[in-house]
Task: structure prediction
Amino acid sequence: MWYPLTFTPLFKERIWGGRTLETLYRKRLPSGVPIGESWEISDRQGDESVVANGPLAGTSLHALMRQHASDLLGRTPPTADGRFPALCKILDARERLSLQVHPPASRAAALGGEPKTEMWYIADADPDAELFVGLKPGVTRAEFEARIASGEVADCFHRIPVRAGDAMFLPSGRVHAIGAGLVIFEIQQNSDTTYRVYDWDRRGPDGHLRELHIPQSLASIDFDDVAPSLVQPEPRGGGTAARERLVFDPVFIVDLMRTGASRGTTDLPAGAHIIATVNGAAEVVGNDVPLQLAAGQFGLIPAALRDVQLSLASGTSVLLVSWPT
Result:
């Protein structure tokens, strides 16, 4: 029954989005609106990915989770309500996103939200692109609150210039924003709780200032999180493609695999995996069924598959997502 799966993207109109996913990854975007997010693998209520290939085409990821969670995930636990544990997106930020935070696990329930740890991989960046992540040294909670009131809270944020190939880890509680001119692969917990601290006095389609969540934000921010750094990749062995560990966290593991002038292959260990093709082309073969992944496409490898091989064309980069067991 099982084979490598791919899904139909869910496109999200965002005031800060654009059309770059159309030109960069040949996504068939809805016409006439700015698209900020392509949800590639999602098991959110009302936003459930649908299988796009093979005999299971047309089946929602949530239906598969209800009936075959152990085959999909193996020893990886689903969410508390039985859903797939990750949400995977490609973001197109033509303008800055809001300054925001996601609640940590210890406070999320009391605030009426869900914890959300995530990581960003920069796929494309304008020359002056930057991230807002964590606080500048010396910023206190009292100063932060005063700057919110004066409209100058952006001055409290640590700014990091970025380019394609950089990565940032964002545990719940780390205040952050994506700057303008970035395309980002986002791997996150299955959560959609975001508290806005400041939104650049931006107005929504209705002409009104967008809603802020100041009390919830102040209760969520880690005020000891000062000047965090970009991810420092850790080289890993195995296969004929270069492999680097970007994130190892109880929530998820993310590796980067890259090839240069030569093709690369590797056998995937047992367990569930997500493969996100940043550039180039990849092929996954499981149960003698091949799945071709072009740049900007994601594949899900069910844990029930064995002897799965991943092949990367020359000049290819992929993110390989898995979970601690």
User: Anything to note?
Assistant: The domain at 234-322 is CATH 2.60.120.10 (Jelly Rolls).
